[in-house]
Amino acid sequence: MILIVCKIECFATPQTGDLLIIDNDTIRIFQYPLDTYFNKNYSYNPGFFDGDIGTYCWRGYKAVWIIKDNKLFLKDIYDCSLSQRISIDRVGLQKDDQGLIFAKWFNGSFKINLKKKEEIREPWNFGRLFMKKLTIRISGGQIIT
After folding, report:
1. How far apart are CA 129 and CA 111, in angstroms?
2. Phi and psi dihedrals of 91, rounded to 5?
């Protein structure tokens, strides 16, 4: 028996996150509620941005979300570089009177690192560093925690 060993190198590019506005903070999130909508409705992402997008943004867009009145809303959609705004009318969902789309299809959670530069040291954990984290749970677009 002859054994041939080959070394194959793989490279992966992390995907750029969406943006979430909570009060006066804008936080990058790596859960994609709009993709959840497309997947649930068996609809294809309508190709929001047809330009040169690169591997860091295979979806072709970044969505901007806002939490308001304990609900999750889609506020805006931009191209990957945030230089070109894309009409949220292309999603095909009804907007409210403020031009927001209620994300009633989304069930999941956002795990957010807060205060990236602040480290919490716990002496009983032998000097390991912990960041402050926030988990926001959402059911049917409603914030439940």
Report:
1. 17
2. -70, -30
109, 136 Cβ separation under 8 angstroms: yes
Does any domain span residue 48?
yes
Number of structural domains the chain divides into:
1
Mean local confidence (pLDDT), 30-41:
84
For tokens 């925690």, name the residue. 145
d(Cα 30, Cα 19) in Å, to the nearest integer? 9
pLDDT per position as a tens digit, 112-139: 876 554 455 555 545 555 567 788 999 9
Residue 106 lies in a domain: yes
Structural domain harbouring 107: 18-143
Does residue 12 form part of some domain? no
Chain segment 51-97, per-residue pLDDT in tens: 656 677 777 788 999 999 999 999 998 887 777 888 878 777 888 99
Distance from C-alpha of 105 to C-alpha of 43, rounded to nearest angstrom = 14
